[in-house]
Amino acid sequence: MALGTGIEWTEATWNPVTGCTLISPGCKNCYAKALARRLQAMGQPNYRNGFAPTLQPQMLELPLTWKRPRTIFVNSMSDLFHEQVPIDYLQSVFDVMRRARWHRFQVLTKRSERLKSVASRLPWPDHIWMGVSVESERYLYRVDHLREIGATVRFLSLEPLLGPLPNLKLDGIQWVIVGGESGPGARPMNPSWVTEIRDLCARSEVPFFFKQWGGRDKRRAGRMLEGRTWDALPRRIGSASATPT
């Protein structure tokens, strides 16, 4: 249920869907897959199917019970736009987000084609942020798809960053997160890839958030870049309403 989280760029997570399937090289060492298997072994009922895509309707209205405003990462353990998530269920998730207007929701997907195909059937109030993950140059088309979405805040998660992105364009993007892969088998991230993106963000006046260097021990590697942390947030952060009584 996750009232808190160790993810540096959010405050809480909410998983109305769990489980996923691998779609591109960035998924190779998926933290959620390993965690789901551990939770299954521990008998956590939401992970009875391990990492198989599973709807969790009992979790749908959880954000409505959180009275203190939070920034919430939606589906840290899945991809909301997975092909096995029916459109009516997807609309139910967005309806909860629409109603929970005192929070800010961060939705992130690698399945930009499906996002693009169903976006017109979903509400896009200011407090629902939409992002795509891009791990290498090959997947920059996801950014093009994101630009067509009517969200006020469109953001990029360039994590795990597996190569340089010399052709990245930031028009229509309000926030960029960059991070290296972590855990056993983590693939290295070249510092020049990071600084090139940071400098592009500076030229484009887009807030830049550096999440981590990653590696086998991400805490030891830290998140300092050229002697400081980079924690910028979107300037257009949405218009979350007052806390309900």
- Kindly report the average pLDDT value: 94
Radius of gyration: 17 Å
Overall shape: it is globular
The structural class is alpha/beta
Major sheet details: 7 strands, parallel
Q: What is the string of helix and strand elements?
A: EEHEHEHEHEHEEHEH
| Strand residues, percent | 15-25%
Calculate the terminal CA-CA distance, rounded to whole Å: 22 Å
Note the quaternary state here.
single chain
Low-confidence stretches: none
Helix content: 10-25%
Query: How is the largest sheet built, in terms of strand order?
Result: 1-4-5-6-7-8-9
Total strands: the figure is: 9
Explain the overall architecture.
By secondary structure, the chain is an alpha/beta fold. The chain has a domain at 58-221. Helix content is 24%, strand content 16%. The chain has helices at 31-41, 62-65, 87-99, 112-118, 141-147, 191-204, 218-221, and strands at residues 12-14, 17-18, 54-55, 71-74, 104-109, 128-133, 154-158, 175-179, 208-212. Strands 1-4-5-6-7-8-9 form a seven-stranded parallel sheet. The protein has a two-stranded antiparallel sheet with strand order 2-3.
